[in-house]
């Protein structure tokens, strides 16, 4: 457990000392959301109709950005080999990486969500649902993305391959997440969709670190 | 035939582990090539014969649907392709388990050669479905649960095909591909049950029902013959690709050995 916490702490310290990566993801999220009004026109109703899907697509793409360096930097300087020898189970390494990715990318994206929700004219009633849905969806993407990053580690064109592997699996997160926001915007309860998203996270939580750990063995 | 049986018992004597015997019998590439070499002509002939009968029966002789007219004949290609897309992915998952647990080298090679064929079959399923959807539903594409999950299946096939080919070390690629295939297998039950879980445009299953198939035997029998024919053709194509991959590997090994010999002679 202490090794897990040490690895998690290292991930967070690295992100704090190089804030540019996190900032790039957040800026990407805001910029993509700011592009939509130019594409579809600034009519408030159109934007509000589009907001749930646009928020989700932008957030998931932004969360993908730092993934190809998740294991890559450690593999290059030998840290990954040290980690694999450290006695921490491989799935534990993957779980710490996934949690670290969520804390250093998912949480900043959540912090930027009010800005993007306002840019897209999302009704304020739906902001709570949007935050909850994005929290769960980014957690799911961190878990799936860790699997993708471990699988494409050392591959040619790995950074191109990674979204191709991860995004199809993330489609359910977009469907249920956007549905939760739409339900809240329409004055309905978003909880059925949030519960389905939570079920997805609960399913991926034990399985994804296991799969990512198995992929790390191959180094 | 005797030679193969003798070779099989020879393997038994050499490897005392009875559990791995049957699986590892074909791990020897030479034995695999010999055994499938005898099987291939039979498989090709059976595939073309059954498929010929099925296609003529389905596309010419069987009656048109009273409601859909002649367009119902798209079904004789569409439904077998859909079954093969799902069945093939299940096969890929089985091969991946064999590869991860037993490190079976031929499972790796077969999985590598299976995924482009699986992607092609899934693409044909989507394309024929789209051609059928235009006259029947009035649209090429809807974001229906079944269509979406089959599209995800197509992406998973493509992802597997490109992942296994993007490593310099083929073993690393095979392992990554096997893990991806198992992760992606969660999608197969979603494809299967999508029509029951979400009540959208695509019709529910009408052949594999517990009580009785929801179609007349005049349509059902040619469909089953077509499905058998396409399955045999699928198996023949995948086996032919795997045989070619084994031989390619052997050619490469021979070339490397000769280069090394010549280098040694020069030095």
UniProtKB/TrEMBL annotation, chain A:
Pfam families: CcmB. Keywords: Cell inner membrane, Cell membrane, Cytochrome c-type biogenesis, Membrane, Transmembrane, Transmembrane helix, Transport. GO terms for molecular function: heme transmembrane transporter activity. It is found in: Cell inner membrane. It is a multi-pass membrane protein. Coiled coil: none annotated. The chain crosses the membrane at residues 20-40, 46-65, 99-120, 126-153, 160-181, 193-216. The keyword Transmembrane helix applies. Its main location: membrane. The keyword Iron-sulfur does not apply. One of its GO terms (biological process) is cytochrome complex assembly. It comes from the Bacteria. GO terms for cellular component: plasma membrane. Belongs to the CcmB/CycW/HelB family. Required for the export of heme to the periplasm for the biogenesis of c-type cytochromes. NCBIfam families: ccmB. PANTHER family: CYTOCHROME C BIOGENESIS B-RELATED (PTHR30070:SF1), HEME EXPORTER PROTEIN B (PTHR30070). This is Heme exporter protein B. The lineage of its organism: Bacteria, Pseudomonadati, Pseudomonadota, Alphaproteobacteria, Acetobacterales.
């Amino acid at each position: 457990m202490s090794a897990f916490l040490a690895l998690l702490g290292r991930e967070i310290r690295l992100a704090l000392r190089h804030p540019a990566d996190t900032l790039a993801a957040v800026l990407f999220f805001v910029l993509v959301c700011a592009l939509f009004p130019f594409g579809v026109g600034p009519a408030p109703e159109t934007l509000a109709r589009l907001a749930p899907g646009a928020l989700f697509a932008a957030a998931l793409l932004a969360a993908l950005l730092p993934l190809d360096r998740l294991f890559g930097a450690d593999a290059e300087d030998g840290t990954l080999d040290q980690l694999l020898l450290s006695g921490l189970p491989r799935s534990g390494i993957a779980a710490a990486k996934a949690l670290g990715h969520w804390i250093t990318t998912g949480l900043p994206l959540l912090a930027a969500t009010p800005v993007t929700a306002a840019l897209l004219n999302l009704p304020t009633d739906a902001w709570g649902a949007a935050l909850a849905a994005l929290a769960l969806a980014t957690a799911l993407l961190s878990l799936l993305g860790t699997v993708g990053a471990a699988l494409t580690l050392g591959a040619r064109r790995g950074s191109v391959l990674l979204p191709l592997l991860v995004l199809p699996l993330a489609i359910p997160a977009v469907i249920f997440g956007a549905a939760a926001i739409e339900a809240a915007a329409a004055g309905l309860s978003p909880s059925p969709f949030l519960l389905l998203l939570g079920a997805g996270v609960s399913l991926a939580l034990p399985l994804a670190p296991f799969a990512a750990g198995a992929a790390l063995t191959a180094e | 035939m005797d030679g193969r049986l003798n070779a099989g018992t020879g393997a038994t004597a050499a490897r005392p582990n009875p559990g791995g015997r049957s699986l590892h019998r074909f791990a020897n590439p030479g034995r695999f090539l010999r055994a499938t070499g005898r099987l291939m002509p039979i498989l090709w002939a059976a595939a073309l014969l059954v498929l010929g009968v099925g296609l003529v029966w389905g596309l010419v002789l069987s009656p048109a649907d009273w409601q859909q007219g002649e367009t119902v004949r798209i079904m004789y290609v569409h439904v077998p392709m859909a079954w093969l897309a799902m069945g093939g992915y299940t096969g890929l998952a089985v091969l991946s388990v064999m590869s991860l647990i037993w490190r079976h080298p031929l499972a790796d090679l077969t999985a590598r050669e299976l995924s482009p064929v699986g992607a092609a079959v899934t693409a044909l399923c989507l394309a024929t479905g789209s051609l059928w959807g235009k006259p029947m539903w009035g649209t090429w594409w809807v974001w229906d649960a079944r269509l979406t999950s089959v599209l995800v299946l197509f992406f998973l096939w493509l992802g597997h095909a490109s992942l296994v080919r993007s490593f310099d070390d083929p073993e690393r690629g095979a392992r990554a591909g096997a893990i991806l295939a198992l992760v992606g297998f969660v999608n197969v039950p979603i494809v299967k049950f999508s029509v029951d879980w979400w009540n959208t445009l695509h019709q529910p299953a009408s052949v594999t029902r517990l009580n009785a198939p929801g179609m007349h035997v005049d349509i059902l029998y040619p469909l089953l013959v077509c499905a058998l024919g396409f399955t045999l053709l699928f198996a023949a194509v995948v086996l032919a690709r795997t045989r070619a991959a084994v031989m390619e590997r052997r050619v490469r090994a021979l070339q490397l050995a000769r280069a090394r010999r010549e280098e040694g002679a020069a030095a």
